[in-house]
Each structure stands twice: as C-alpha cells, then as structure tokens.
Amino acid sequence: MTAEPSENSSGSAGTSGTRFDLEKETELRFELLSGLAEVFGSELNRNKKYTFGPGSKIAVFTWQGCSVSLSGKTEVAYISKDTPMLLYLNTHAALEQMRRQAEKENERGPR
C-alpha cells in the first residue's frame, strides 16, 4: 500500500501497533494529535512533529488508542492488533514480582 504525500489522519483504538516502511527517497512527518503512543518504547509528545528519514521502518504502539497526523509517502503501512507488547508487559511484571519476593526474603532476585 502506498500513501500519497498529503496530510492524513489516522485513528487507532485499543492495544494496537501501526507500522510504516518508508521509501528510500522519502521522509515521513508524524504527529500525535491525541491519546498516548510510543515508538520502539519511547513515549511520543502530543502535538510535536517527528520526522523519520528515508528507508526507516517505524513501529508506533498505543495501549488505549490515539489519533495521529501523517505527511509523506510510505512503501508499506498497516495497523496490527497482534503485537508482542502484552507479552513484554507480562514478562516485566513477573520479573518484578520475583525481585520483590527476593528483596523481602533478603535474597538475590532475577537479573
């Protein structure tokens, strides 16, 4: 799928990830209009324009939905409900629980 270079708005509800693969000679401008989202674990600021260079592969994730504005041409763009983020969260929670238990028992926790 190729998006024409223009202002596009996109919405995403619930836990989902949006992926963009940029063409080799094009950059993409991305702005978070509402909600919360992150790119590879770094939280995005609302109403700040982010520019991604030619050939970039970007994954934007939201837990609760968001609205974004895009400007540029993508080689591939799609929204996926099937992301590993819930698995990462559960793994983090399990490790944290093990660390707290080890601290409580004055032992070494997982590293």
Please tell me about this protein's structure.
The structure is a single chain. This protein is of the alpha+beta class and 111 residues long. It has two domains: 7-80, Clp1, DNA binding domain (Jelly Rolls), CATH 2.60.120.1030; 82-111. Helices cover 18% and strands 44% of the residues. It contains one helix and nine strands, in the order βββββββββα. The protein has one helix at 85-104; strands spanning 7-12, 16-22, 28-35, 38-39, 42-43, 49-52, 57-62, 66-72, 74-80. The strands form two sheets. Strands 5-4-7-2-9 form a five-stranded antiparallel β-sheet, with no helix packed on it. Strands 1-8-3-6 form a four-stranded antiparallel β-sheet, with no helix packed on it. A hairpin with a 2-residue loop joins strand 4 (38-39) and strand 5 (42-43). The chain is elongated. The model is unreliable at 1-9 (pLDDT under 50).
